[in-house]
Amino acid sequence: MKTLFTILLATVGCTSLAAGRLTDYVDPRIGSEGLGRVFIGPSHPYGMVKPSPDCTPSPNSGWLPMPERVDGFSQVHVSGTGGGPKYGNILIMPFATPDGMTRTTHYDRRRDETVSLGYYATHLDESDINVEITTAPRASVYRIDYPAEREIKGLAIDAGFFLGYEPIPDAREAQQLVGSQIEIDGDHAVKGYSRVRGGWNDGRAYTVYFYATTSEPFVETATWREESIGSDRYCVDMGDRTGALLRFPSTADTVTVKIGISFLSELKARQNCIDQVAGKSFERVHAELLDEWEKLLGRVTLDPATPPEQRRMFYTALYHTMIMPVDRTGECPLWNDPTPYYDDYYAIWDTYRSSMPLVTLLDPDRQRDIVNSLLTIYRRDGFMPDARSGNANGRTQGGSNAEVVLADALVKGLNGIDWNLALEAMLKDAETAPGGKEEAEGRGGLRDYIELGYIPHGTPRAGNRTVEYSLCDYAIAVVADSLGRDDVRDRYMKQSGNWRNLWRADYEHDGARGFIMPRDRRGEWLDSIPFGHGPEPRPRFVYTPVTFEGPWYTPWWSMFFYEASSWEYSLSIPHDVPGLIEACGGPEAMESRLDTFFDHGHFNVNNEPSFLTPCLYHWLGKPHITSRRVANIVAANYNDTPAGLPGNDDSGAMSSWLAFHMTGLYPNAGHDYYLIHSPLVKSATFNLDGGKQFTIKAVNFNPDKNPYIVSARLNGKPYDLSTIRHRTILDGGTLELTMGPRPTGWGKQMF
Amino acid sequence: MKTLFTILLATVGCTSLAAGRLTDYVDPRIGSEGLGRVFIGPSHPYGMVKPSPDCTPSPNSGWLPMPERVDGFSQVHVSGTGGGPKYGNILIMPFATPDGMTRTTHYDRRRDETVSLGYYATHLDESDINVEITTAPRASVYRIDYPAEREIKGLAIDAGFFLGYEPIPDAREAQQLVGSQIEIDGDHAVKGYSRVRGGWNDGRAYTVYFYATTSEPFVETATWREESIGSDRYCVDMGDRTGALLRFPSTADTVTVKIGISFLSELKARQNCIDQVAGKSFERVHAELLDEWEKLLGRVTLDPATPPEQRRMFYTALYHTMIMPVDRTGECPLWNDPTPYYDDYYAIWDTYRSSMPLVTLLDPDRQRDIVNSLLTIYRRDGFMPDARSGNANGRTQGGSNAEVVLADALVKGLNGIDWNLALEAMLKDAETAPGGKEEAEGRGGLRDYIELGYIPHGTPRAGNRTVEYSLCDYAIAVVADSLGRDDVRDRYMKQSGNWRNLWRADYEHDGARGFIMPRDRRGEWLDSIPFGHGPEPRPRFVYTPVTFEGPWYTPWWSMFFYEASSWEYSLSIPHDVPGLIEACGGPEAMESRLDTFFDHGHFNVNNEPSFLTPCLYHWLGKPHITSRRVANIVAANYNDTPAGLPGNDDSGAMSSWLAFHMTGLYPNAGHDYYLIHSPLVKSATFNLDGGKQFTIKAVNFNPDKNPYIVSARLNGKPYDLSTIRHRTILDGGTLELTMGPRPTGWGKQMF
């Protein structure tokens, strides 16, 4: 009965797959080449387990395009990240070579590769083996087809592998092994763990436990410690690299390997394996993954006329937005609070602008869980994370941007959040300097920020920290206001103007006047800044609004702005755009400045601080220019190819920016409205929580001939504002945008 | 052959035991009752595993005197601590009651109890079972004698037990369960772990893994999760309490249980069990423990004429000094640096004064390892610990006293320490405020301390923090000086006078003038101080130099002084006693003040800040008064009974104070000399590293009739100084002290 049921479900899975579902439009390869660095293997939404090939030299997502060699397939990865790698734990590699049981490494070359949603397959050259991969949220499944004629049908499991190995101890952003362990359990299972510290976020040690079962028995086994292979059934943790070699019967042409993963224990990894994949065929596990995604992707349906290329871009963007952070509820080794636990925030500096708002709109329960996870992390670890991975806060990029995530959740009415606790967490960031741990959490340079109203040059990232803390202060004021904490609100609303303290009003560059520029502790503006840190005499270099990198290799972490120029950050004041326009010399000067920004190449499409800048024309009463800019940016930088993302996807940041803009909406995180511009698809319907629908519909849709919104109707009534409130969308309805060849006066008013 | 060898060794062990060894004089019960709170179970020197009975209500060491009930026997404990409990993990309890397999708790009453070094035995009333315990460094051994006539011969293993359970979530200083797991492995073994956070030092989660083997097979097993008992062979970690029930054959009258413990994994726990106790009889394990202690205790030999009571006091004091911190080298789950790893510093505030100096003198290699462990913790975790436990820094009591430990190691010439790294670690404490983690590490109130030169009232422990930071600054100056860092030395030598900034020179009390008193931020002295914290109006109470506790229940952590009065701390300036004498009004005023201190009950024998005070007469040229004070204090407060320690032993602090004074020497931590006073034993020989010996010998020894040193000879030559350098002792030789009935001019000069 059970077998029949399994086959039945597997068939259903295949049928659904064949029926042209939304999941068909997800192409995990988009953004995998070039700068995108997205994860290409199978993943459930926010899935803890992310199996993927790992190629040498180790890239952040594990994968590199053919013909790079493959070291094997490990079970935990991140997506779209820059900086040093993280994870890449518990590597398996099948082999069919005669000397297979005498080697600890079995890298091979791929003959071809198939990548689709929840599915990866490749053919290994030397061993002539076919490998297919799919996954459940917490257990991965491999189907390995060995060449029938080979005597050796083997599998290596490496518990000591991880991405980004560096022979230099404590090399910056490199992972370092703490220990590993492997144990052969009977003739169908292997268990163990990998314990690693460091990596991208310079985090504390994390442990990935596994329990792997095979459909065929072992006829020979070996284990290894470093380079020494022996017949022991286990290798106990001695702080080094361990692994196992397994040989299946020579008649075993196909072997299925199921690998449960846990951050608590091997037994929990086994339980995850039992709960999620035991007794299920490869096809059924894959079908269940597709069903999960189908439900989630179905939160937005596009017009039937939407071309496949655009569908692929759109649904893949949703997919990329929803594979991180990862849901590790019940898998936290630090506490057992009943609140949800999410890890791998990579980083909130990247995701607060568009990724988190997209999840809030499409999957509010999920975003509530993520927010509560942030608050639990604050309660237990002392600070909310900016970049958390491997159960450890690490590497603040800019500000303490979790504060904006909280304010955004508040203004969008997310339920089930303790707002007093939220304010407490925000005030911790804003009032307690994270002594000695500025790299990991809280607000570096806080003391100066509070005393001087800005961060003087000398503190790393003085520029963007000042600008972003002022935004974060606005976020605090928003939450304080809702709690009736007027004193706090007033204080932080005042502080939210601190960006002005680095505004060098008379500085001119490329026709624009007024820039965020370095300033020393005494208040003097600096035209040149010293290189590096420390008291010794240091060479200086000229700093201008287009300075991006230091003259020698300088990590972003040490520059005046993180990953940006002053041209970019000087336009990145999302909580006070009217004030910014005034500071720039008024609407006309601002329009001219924005044009210069885009036309003279100051805009950096792959950079989060500029995410909102194309929309600033809205504040000048000219949303039609926003529309034109957005359409051009998307056309020039995004497509449905492997190089279709213009920068590191940063855990879905680039992708969510695209997805919003395709619908004609874009959020300003921490505010309850969306900016309306010309959609890139004929219609998009949000299928909201509770069964309501909200549709954005373009009449006379023809982006080439009718690029502009000439009039609009909301639920049949004229609608002249260029923004729409979150609550209005939640109420359901239709926003009908009539498109035309020339801009009209539509959208002059924002509110 | 193997069996014969085992028996042989066991016999050797027994023989040595019978031969009247130093270990015979260790009585772990001394200090177990009253305030001492010492651990009474078996422990190797610095042993990771410390099995002991656990009684309800849970005390810090696990044990309480009969007739308190026994919940069972857990494997990890601390010794002599105050505050909330820690550890108490992996509880086992034999039972022989008919309903045994249906209950998760099996507490019983003790009929009698035997406690000796490395050995504990008791008889359980209800079950009529005899339990004996001994231990290896990382594995414990139990011998259980069941009553022959009982059908049920059972053992419960509770992986969810820990000391100090509080039903209130996050109750202050209470441990909280994160998760546990249990798995029956074949018919002779059980494995699992307990993961717990919080407790005394409010630490992060730690995990204690175990692997228990039994000499008899299981004929029936059950496991439980919370209150639900079932036939499953395992309970996976779901964040709750789990355990196992085992039944042995009814013919199994004696069962030996061996429990390996690890902080890495169950397999490592099993390996520890194999490496340390597999194939060894109970007697042999015990004999090996005695051999270890014999070697260590033999570093000091007392005069043959020393009465047994004094021998028991002395060797038990050495024993108590050397059971913590615990050596967990190779067991650190956070990093795998090749440096030693010690945990359970409980706390350095308690141990820097006499415990660490005693280890430095008797076992310098050990102290070097401990110092290197502190430096590795700094390098990896960001700060050296004050109180570290469960792999987490937590709860600074006073200052950042690890700095004094480093200076003490330097002036005493310990080799193999990276002094540049040491200075870096010290400067981190002294210059980087531990933002938001002041409770756990670094210097709380640092900003004020640097800006004002003192910590104003309002910051918890403003008084002792100011006083101790100034001592710590002296320690920094010492290390900086040795590295030729004159700028650092000068700055910190200047700061080491900061205690003067809280010295209220005109304040008089009980005939003394000048006290460390609370001062506000503006520099005003406070005669009354507000209760509690926060901006709201708060009741005030009068603060005087004898104020010890707040008027309502106020934890030490929030008072002006931690665990002390101003009378005590105003005399606790060990790095500048001459300056203190001057501040007190000169030698005569000081002598009168010291007399008042001791005679009017201001001295608190159980309190570390007063440890050096009896010796302050040395600085007045009157070491004979020191001798009298010390003899009286010891006579009135120390003995060889279970109530023989006058306060929490604090990981050996009280004990090491006693041991030093019995020999006639007392250290001033951070300085390279010992103060010489009348020994309490006729002679003591230090058997030093490298084979040299240094003997302190009292001629005309008769404490009642000849309480004073009247003259001295060092290696045959007259010696008139009242101190002796560490290096002089290391060179070996004899210090002959001639005792007499009346003080002479001997010892007027210190240096």
Detailed description of the structure:
- The structure is a homodimer of 751-residue chains.
- With 751 residues, chain A is an alpha+beta fold.
- The first copy, chain A, folds into two domains: 2-296, Beta-galactosidase, Chain A, domain 5 (Distorted Sandwich); 300-728, alpha-1,2-mannosidases domains (Glycosyl hydrolase family fold), CATH 1.20.1610.10.
- Helices cover 27% and strands 23% of the residues of chain A.
- Chain A has a nine-stranded antiparallel beta sheet. A six-stranded mixed beta sheet of chain A has the order 17-28-29-33-30-31.
- The longest helix of chain A is centred in the middle third of the chain and has 21 residues, at 462-482.
- Chain A is globular.
- The interface between A and B is large, with 39 and 38 residues.
Keywords:
homodimer, 751 residues, alpha+beta, Beta-galactosidase, Chain A, domain 5, Glycosyl hydrolase family fold, 2 domains, nine-stranded antiparallel sheet, six-stranded mixed sheet, 23% strand, disordered N terminus
| Helix coverage percent of chain A | 25-40%
Ranges of chain A with pLDDT <50 over ≥5 residues?
1-19
Identify the overall geometry of chain A: globular
CATH hierarchy, class of the largest domain in chain A = Mainly Alpha
**CATH topology description of the largest domain in chain A:** Glycosyl hydrolase family fold
Strand order of the largest sheet of chain A: 4-5-6-7-16-11-10-9-14
Write down the Rg of chain A: 26 Å
Q: What does the average pLDDT of chain A come to?
A: 94
